[in-house]
Amino acid sequence: MGSCLTCFKAPPNPTAGNVGVCGGAVSGPDAAVIDPDVAVHETDDLLAASPIRMTSLGSDRKSGGSFKKTLLNGNLGALPDGSTVPGKDLATQISDNDLNKLFEEYKDSQEDAILSEGIERLCCDLGYKPDDFAILVLAWRLDASQMCQFTKSEFIQGLQQMNAASIDDIKTRLRQIIDKLSATGDESEDFKQLYRFTFRFGLEPGHRILSLDMAVSLWRLVFTVHTPDILPRWLNFLEQHQNIRGVPKDTWNMFLNFVETCDITQYDDTEAWPSLFDDFVEYEQERMKAVAAAALAANSSKSDGTGDGGGGPDEDDNNNDYNS
């Protein structure tokens, strides 16, 4: 939805301040690239399965290309439970006149589209903030092509498929969709469709990769209802390495498989993971060794009586062991 900073703002970034979801990509000849390997071929598909099915990443939890326009297996019009309004064909369930009136309430005065100001008013009427997960879901169901903009065809056709002709209808459908996403988990086909859409939605026009800030913001947003245990550590790693040029589509797509299948203690760097994942695992393994060494030192000082004066070693251990 453009290059505005007023809508789809990301949740606060604890290390870099507020990051707008419409940020620009980090580029330039002097930018170091930690993840240079945009795959030889790109695909909208997530990996069907990892070569090795593992538990989780050290926890208890077991750039371009066309987007496939048919979402939810070609049944965008179905309600989340797969049903439609009984006795009515989808095309006749709602009035085009009603949809046009609704569009006119929010459209820009100069362009035949709903832009930043209209989207903010729409969000307000729906009872959500522009950076809420529900608004990402709405953009997905409208198949919006870019941030800060709903074209007339996207808005009207998307609401037709949702079978929603009023603000109350949209509220109801969004609640149903979010409830289904919450219940089915991040391995469901619905969530995978939303996850793939989010990458394309966040791209700046003409770009093939997400900027680092954009990717971090969107990972936080898309995992709102299902947050992988490893996500805070992954985002911390990215924020500590601002020289990463960006996140290509294959890396974005494979991250979902990565969090589902990988155990950092058994990670095999010969598997076909992006090099950015290799760098992350190496970073985490070194961090975990440092944490273990600090814990061992703390225990040793307590056993010989040198640590009775205070909690210095324990404090260092807590500072190092972020989100473990």
UniProtKB/TrEMBL annotation:
Residues 313-324 have a biased composition (Acidic residues). Residues 297-324 are annotated as: Disordered. Pfam families: Cullin_binding. Neddylation of cullins play an essential role in the regulation of SCF-type complexes activity. Promotes neddylation of cullin components of SCF-type E3 ubiquitin ligase complexes and thus regulates SCF-type complex activity. Function promotes cell proliferation. Residues 94-285 form the DCUN1 domain. This is Defective in cullin neddylation protein. InterPro entries: DCN-prot, DCN1-like_PONY, PONY_dom. It comes from Culex pipiens pipiens (Northern house mosquito). It comes from the Eukaryota. Keywords: Ubl conjugation pathway. GO terms for cellular component: plasma membrane. GO terms for biological process: positive regulation of protein neddylation.
